[in-house]
Amino acid sequence: MDEQIIRNKELNIYEALIPVIALIGMLAYNVFVYGDDALSGSNQFILLMGAAVAAIVGFFNKVTYRRMIEEVADNIKSTTGALLILLFVGALAGTWLISGVIPTMIYYGLKLLNPTVFLPVTVVICAVISIATGSSWTTSATVGIALIGIGGALGIPLGMAAGAVLSGAYFGDKMSPLSDTTNLAPAMAGTDLFTHIRYMAFTTVPTITITLVVFILIGFTLETSGTADTATILASIDASFHISGWLFIVPLAVILLIIRRTQPLIALLAGTLLGGIFAIFFQPDIVMNVAGADQLDFRAAYQGIMNAITVDTSVETSNTELNDLFSSGGMYGMLGTIWLIICAMVFGGVMDAIGALATISAALLKMAHTVFGLFASTVATCLALNVTASDQYLALVVPGKMFKQAYQDRDLAPENLSRTLEDSGTVTSVLVPWNTCGAYQSGVLGVSVADYFVYAIFNWLSPFMTLFFAAFQIKIRQLVRK
């Protein structure tokens, strides 16, 4: 909310677009050369090259190097919480693996779910958890990981499973009064939280309904081999881990902490430590194996848990398909995602410092000659900022400040703006690989953005739904003048 919009009168729209066009061109060629391996490091460097192009444009428009570095520093500082959360998610995944928490969730999930209902049920489960916690990130880091594992065991494509997880998670995040973005959007637009949520339901409920219908239809037409192999998979899990309902205490404790408004870092740390403690009591053989020890003593327990928290860990089973599933990179496995976020923040910081973000937003605002044009310009600005600024909060804050007066001038209630910000800024952030949300979700779920993009139906359908309502003047509330 304290974000200052930097304007540069020296910079025109054509110059502001040069870094964007250069970045898109370089990324396109890089993905063409490296394919799925582009996120292993080359895309990160391309983001730095895009920042270099933006810096050159800035130098020609009287922006100092010091100003750019200061904005980059502020940008990276704003992601400190996200980077620490990523490290703790990696740690949590490691202890939840060796403690049997994730295998137990997968085990019972395989007993209860089948390929026909898996996708819509996944959407509903993630929506409920996300509404309760107010966090799509927490949802992905807990039940999301388990559901991806269940989907893989059932023979469902991982991109499809991830799309269902994210559709439900972002629906809940968007509609929860506990969500930071759900509080930020009305604050930027000038309305109150619950008016915003009620008004947002007009576009959000039809979108999630369509999403569920599509996943139900996919479920009835999906051909998988998972059903026939379920008994074998269950036997392999049971032989490798001590499966117990008591292990559900760990994820339930984390969810309860989040619901009680505990800071995410504290909740994830608690979940990590609980996972380590439960590992000692429920899976002593696995802890010894991870530590490379012959007996379980204090040193072996310490080393086994620390290895799970920090580095690559895997648990071998009699089923080769499960071996890939029961592996974790720990905190080390999250470093690639953290690297990507930092490089994206460098690009976004330089773009902000030279005034390019404000120039692009102002140009889009000038194109808004009608009510529909105003809504379309807001959507386009949010999407552009998710791509260029690489952060969903900037995609809410900058358009919120830029467009607030324009909505008032058209006698449109502020909830029109807050709803549009969420419909196009919050949910689409996960569709951009170098955005903090896209990088986080693909890193946590282990599925690339390219693989889940099409199946994240709720996320890409939301901006189209808000434009549909604007085009046909459906539920467009007018400003009541006192």
Overview of this structure, please?
This protein has 482 residues and is mostly helical. The chain has 2 domains: 13-79 and 334-471, no CATH class; 81-333, no CATH class. Helices cover 74% and strands 1% of the residues. It has a two-stranded antiparallel ribbon. The two termini are 27 Å apart.
Element order: H for helix, E for strand: HHHHHHHHHHHHHHHEHEHHHHHHHH
Low-confidence regions: none
Tell me the total number of β-strands: 2
Question: Based on CA inertia axes, which overall geometry fits?
Answer: globular
Domains (count): 2
- The helical percent reads over 70%
Q: What would you call the structural class?
A: mainly alpha
Strand fraction equals under 5%
* Total count of helical runs of at least 4 residues: 24
At a glance:
The chain is built from 24 helices and two strands.
Present the secondary structure layout:
Elements: H1 13-34, H2 42-59, H3 65-78, H4 80-98, H5 101-112, H6 115-133, H7 136-153, H8 158-175, H9 180-189, H10 193-221, H11 226-240, H12 249-259, H13 264-282, H14 284-291, H15 298-310, E1 313-314, H16 320-325, E2 327-328, H17 335-353, H18 356-366, H19 371-388, H20 392-409, H21 414-426, H22 436-445, H23 449-452, H24 457-471
Antiparallel strand pairs: 1-2
